[in-house]
Amino acid sequence: AEGAGAIEILEGLLSANDREAAHNRAHFDRHGVLAVNLMSAPGAGKTALLERTLDTLTGTLRVGVIEGDLETENDARRIRAHGVPAVQITTGSACHLDAHMIHDALHALPLTALDIVFIENVGNLVCPASFDLGQHANVVLLSVTEGDDKPAKYPVMFRAADLLLLSKIDLLPLMDDFAPARAETALRALANTAPV
Amino acid sequence: AEGAGAIEILEGLLSANDREAAHNRAHFDRHGVLAVNLMSAPGAGKTALLERTLDTLTGTLRVGVIEGDLETENDARRIRAHGVPAVQITTGSACHLDAHMIHDALHALPLTALDIVFIENVGNLVCPASFDLGQHANVVLLSVTEGDDKPAKYPVMFRAADLLLLSKIDLLPLMDDFAPARAETALRALANTAPV
Ligand SMILES: Nc1nc2c(ncn2[C@@H]2O[C@H](COP(=O)(O)OP(=O)(O)OP(=O)(O)O)[C@@H](O)[C@H]2O)c(=O)[nH]1
Ligand SMILES: Nc1nc2c(ncn2[C@@H]2O[C@H](COP(=O)(O)OP(=O)(O)OP(=O)(O)O)[C@@H](O)[C@H]2O)c(=O)[nH]1
Ligand SMILES: [Mg+2]
Ligand SMILES: [Mg+2]
Ligand SMILES: [Zn+2]
Ligand SMILES: [Zn+2]
User: Fold this and answer.
1) DSSP strand E in chain B: where?
2) Ligand 2 pocket: which of B126, B139, B167, B178 to mutate (most atoms <8 Å of CB)?
3) Chain-wide mean pLDDT for chain A?
4) Regions of chain A short of the pLDDT cut 70
5) I need a labelling partner for B138 at 20 to 30 A (CA). Which of A58, A60, A137, B6 fits?
6) Does any CB of chain B come closer than 8 Å to the CB of residue A132?
7) Bridge-partner residues for A165, per DSSP?
8) What's the CA-to-centroid distance between B98 and ligand 3, angstroms?
9) Residue A113, min C-alpha distance to chain B (Å)
10) What is the C-alpha radius of gyration for chain B, rounded to an integer number of angstroms?
11) Superfamily of domain A2-135
């Protein structure tokens, strides 16, 4: 019974979240901003990827970043060091970002002056996949140090991916049990046709 | 309001969980079994550590394993290949093990014939920390590939650790920005005196 009660509450929260997510998407669309939700396990390299991407995009596209972590401003600080506006969300103990947090954060960004907003979710290969934030696309990072069985073992996240990026591939020669083809096979087994 | 409702339900679930956890602990204690809860980010090396540990303990202590994953029997299979009884829990979409799942699993293990039960939790550096399973100790793995800022950024998990193990230290020479001392400083900042 307690389980059923929790499921009902969760469904209520999800539909409230979906309404707020749609509202966020309307904000992004009105300003012609593409919103990308970046998800991965802790430390797979989301912020490192963003730092590289920002340097590549400088001068061509105007980028803003929303950072999600339980604690610290570390990641927002790293982004700002590249001259890019970044809003840090600290969730305290929550394991994922939700649409309401993103709504507050997007109003703290100069949306009219931006082309893309990257949202770096809390490092977690499970929970963030279930909460729409109003993004247009989900990018999931899988570090080769985590093992090529991750899509099979964490299917909810990998089903949600519009693009799967393998990270830390400089370490691939050292990871004798990681085969990119096996990771892709595990992804396809979830009926996900996203590029890898 | 919905948030408050969710918090109440969560508190209800937690206290139901705590009762079941106490019941599990009584089971373990009655059989003189030490129960250890192993937690980390996905792919930090929990199963690899267990495989090595089992080989080391063979002939001295009798070990059983409870494996938690969203999907697949992979990890239980890896354990059984070492001649050790293993029960696989597949949570579907749940991001952590709870005491009820452990109760079912421990009744599927020959507790009278065991000295230690290792519980490998779902790979997640947030949610598992909040659910008592009836274990006697929490061991948290931090892979050096994840970055030495993880205790600061995922404080709930690292506060719960009775022992912090650094994993994949063979890769330490390649991770030029991971300093074990910085990871330990971040852990101590949470007022956690656990050995590293
Ligand atoms: N070898 C190698 N290390 C990398 C690469 N990308 C990131 N790292 C390292 O991985 C660790 C974590 O990188 P971050 O960018 O902070 O990872 P993150 O996913 O943002 O981490 P959280 O936000 O805490 O979940 C750091 O020590 C980085 O130096 C890579 O391509 N190769
Ligand atoms: N270099 C190196 N790789 C390791 C070490 N331990 C584990 N790995 C690799 O890390 C990857 C994941 O290892 P697992 O033992 O499956 O990790 P896990 O924490 O059980 O993963 P999940 O149960 O899926 O969360 C595999 O490719 C292992 O070969 C280590 O000490 N050094
Ligand atoms: Mg980051
Ligand atoms: Mg495992
Ligand atoms: Zn969760
Ligand atoms: Zn019982």
Assistant:
1) 34-39, 63-69, 86-90, 116-120, 137-143, 163-167
2) B167
3) 92
4) 1-7, 10, 191-196
5) B6
6) no
7) A141
8) 28
9) 30
10) 17
11) P-loop containing nucleotide triphosphate hydrolases (3.40.50.300)
